[in-house]
Amino acid sequence: MRIVTWNVAGLNARIHRVKLWIEENQPDVLCLQETKMEDEVFQKKAQPFFEELGYESVHNGQKSWNGVAIISKVGIEDPQKGFDDGRKDPDPDARIVWATCSNIRIASCYIPNGRTLGDDHYKYKLDWLGRLHDDLKKNSDPSKTPVVTAGDFNVCPRPVLDEWDPKQEYTNFDWKSKKTLTETFDLPETHITSDARGAIKKLDDLGMKDVFCERFPEEKADTFWEYPKNAFKDKRGLRIDLVLASDVVAKSLESIEVDMQERTPEKMLEKENKDLIEKYKDAKGKFVKPSDHAPLVAAFNWSN
Predict the structure, then answer these.
(1) Dihedral, CA atoms, 160, 165, 167, 171, nearest 10 degrees?
(2) Cα(169)–Cα(101) distance, rounded to whole angstroms?
(3) Pure H helices in the chain
(4) What is d(CA 196, CA 155) in angstroms, rounded to the nearest whole number?
(5) CATH code of the domain covering residue 259
């Protein structure tokens, strides 16, 4: 069973690439983040594509921002939007959706970025991760039952391995100044704090294992690269997209990998594989830009 998580950075803008990727890779379950569309728009513009490919879907969306979905060809049962953690205040954003697929309780998650350490959004981020923990503890019991939470966690769980080197110098042409600049790049501070990493550790203690880290504890595998300044070409990325699985699922992991080709920018494709330029053009003949995240593909030896 192949479970995939992918922040598509706008489903409406990237529906052509998503459809192609599904056709070629045939995942069993695809968890999408940052769909950036309301549920009504998803039902009209996206759901028909998925149905044509043989997939059911459930979506939790809002206009222009956030939005998460689960796309499944192994069934969708008991869908739920938001948290059921015992609190009366609903999540103000559309950041989590749940469904049971092939007897696994699955959540597609888009954790708040946090912005800056002094911003209320960072407090919201930590509270959100706490609510995810409490929801899992209350409803899923990861110590005994099959559960997967997959998505863009906006946290680098491991120092160094999951980060770019903030001291490394990169040389790129700056179009604003029209000069070649050598510069370093600071890490996003809200992704590397002890509190954010501690929240991931708390999920681990509950029984939700980072399956990539479990399989490859000393290997680097970025999933996100910023658009500006040739980040992908310079290999200046972060590992922030995660698949967390309860023990009964995690122990059945067969493989996990990042689909780097899907993130390759147009300029690199022009030099390395021009055929893909044509492939990624939409019906109007316009090249569809990749998301700044790559799909993370986890395969499990699982049957219900």
Answers:
(1) 170
(2) 45
(3) 11-25, 39-45, 47-52, 120-139, 194-206, 211-215, 247-250, 266-272, 275-279
(4) 6
(5) 3.60.10.10
Question: Alpha-carbon distance 205 to 230, whole Å?
Answer: 37
Q: Dig out the tokens for 13 from the structure.
A: 């803008």
Q: Is 237 exposed, middle or buried (0-12, 13-18, 19+ CB in 10 A)?
A: buried
What pLDDT does 175 receive? 84
Are the C-beta atoms of 69 and 35 separated by less than 8 Å? yes
Find the DSSP H helices in 66-208.
120-139, 194-206
Residue in the block written with tokens 């510069």:
183
The pair of structure tokens assigned to 296 is: 């993370």
The two three-digit tokens of residue 255, written as one number: 């493989």
**Burial (Cβ within 10 Å: 0-12, 13-18, ≥19) of residue 182:** exposed
State residue 221's pLDDT score. 97
- Contact 122/78 with Cβ under 8 angstroms? no
- Give the domain extent around 87: 2-300
Give pLDDT tens digits along the chain (304 positions): 999 999 999 999 999 999 999 999 999 999 999 999 999 999 999 999 999 999 999 999 999 999 999 999 999 999 999 999 999 999 999 999 999 999 999 999 999 999 999 999 999 999 999 999 999 999 999 999 999 999 999 999 999 999 999 999 999 888 888 999 999 999 999 999 999 999 999 999 999 999 999 999 999 999 999 999 999 999 999 999 999 999 999 999 999 999 999 999 999 999 998 889 999 999 999 999 999 999 999 999 998 7
- Number of domain units in the chain: 1
What 8-state DSSP symbol labels residue 182? E
DSSP state of 191: G
Could you tell me the two tokens for 69?
A: 């979905």
CA distance 5 to 144: 23
95 bridge partner residues: none
